[in-house]
Amino acid sequence: MEGVSTSALFSAGSSGLAERVTEAVNAEGYAVVTGLLDARGCDALVSEVDRVERDHGIDFGKNDFEGFQTRRIFNLIQRSPRFRELVVDERMLGIIESILGVDFLLSGTTSMHLGPGETPQLLHADDGMITLPRPHIATLLTTLWALSDFEDDNGATRLVPRSHLRPEMPRPGEAHETIAAEMPAGSVLFLHGSTWHGGGANTTSDRERYGLSIQFVAGWCRQQQNLMLGTDPELVATYPRRLQELIGYSLYQNVMGHVDREHPLTLLGQDVQPDMVWDRMGNEEKK
Ligand SMILES: O=C(O)CCC(=O)C(=O)O
Fold first, then answer.
1. Same domain, yes or no, for 186 and 277?
2. Do 83 and 107 sit in the same domain of this protein?
3. What is the pLDDT of residue 284?
């Protein structure tokens, strides 16, 4: 099976990383960046995934899409500061802003832990429910963090290069040429929201595949996970400011998301002036 193309493969230290990844995502529908986490970082996150699964009795999926041999933890950021640190990784956020534009939002955080015996997931596009005519610019961007090696036989994500440029969506039962996003632990797969992909089969008898999905949307789109309602505001008040903004305590283009004309961060007890676009426009008119 064909693997990741060299034109879509980068290392964390590459110069002009954000621009080059953006170019690859727009042209190929995906890019892989190696070396964003070291072995200690991966091990620590795997231990956190194992701990949360144990503490909260996280069971296998109840349908074929979520995976009968896959454990998923949603809203990871509320489970541990380690996951929160990952979401504000500036190297990743720089790439996301380059693709989705300013004021983008976090859409969801999910652990996808594939066990031996998992079968291939249905090919799909993460923005499949968006009713814009296809193809269209990226409104959603998925990052898949490999905490263990992603290999062809242990469930590496499979994808169809350039499928984000097609006008249609894959239909169940159709056969498509895919590549396996094989990558060493510590790498991240960046996926255009329209790219056809799915978790691979884990045909091994003893190798787990640990992956974290951190998804983002353009600031004018709806987030998949309701991160503002899903977390106790007292806990959110302890998050780094950047993470509070990413989950929705922020304004898009100085207007979308205001609360009674106030900045949403005031709900967390912060004194932030909204800098409304209406003030700017009104003052412009008078000049
Ligand atoms: O686990 C993976 O490799 C991808 C999973 C996925 O695409 C999904 O669940 O939407």
1. no
2. yes
3. 72
pLDDT score at 14: 94
What distance in angstroms lies between residue 63's CA and the mean position of ligand 1's atoms? 13
Which atom, in ligand 1's list, is nearest to the CA of 157? 3
Mutation choice for ligand 1 from 197, 208, 209, 215, CB with most ligand atoms inside 8 A:
197
Q: Could you tell me the distance, in angstroms and rounded to a whole number, from the CA of residue 191 to the centre of ligand 1?
A: 11
**Alpha carbon distance 35, 21 (integer Å):** 14
Q: Do 145 and 265 share a domain, yes or no?
A: no
Nearest to 29 by CA among 165, 157, 134, 158: 165
56 lies in some domain? yes
31 torsion bin: left (phi>0), alpha (psi -120 to 50), beta (else): beta
Is this prediction's pTM over 0.90? yes
* Average confidence (pLDDT) over 256-277: 94
Per residue in 162-212, pLDDT (tens digit) is 999 999 999 998 999 999 999 999 999 999 999 999 999 999 999 999 999
Structure confidence at residue 283 (pLDDT): 80
- Has residue 1 got a pLDDT over 90? no
Q: Whose CA is nearest to atom 9 of ligand 1?
A: 66
3-state secondary structure of 7: helix
Check whether residue 70 and residue 212 sit in a common domain. yes
Asked whether residue 262 falls in the same domain as residue 242, the answer is no
Domain interval for residue 276 = 258-287
Number of domains in the chain: 2
pLDDT band at 287 (very low <50, low <70, confident <90, very high): low
Q: How are strands ordered across the β-sheet holding 179-180?
A: 179-180, 158-159, 197-198
Let me know whether 76 and 184 are in one domain. Answer: yes
Question: In this structure, what CATH number is given to the domain that contains residue 93?
Answer: 2.60.120.620
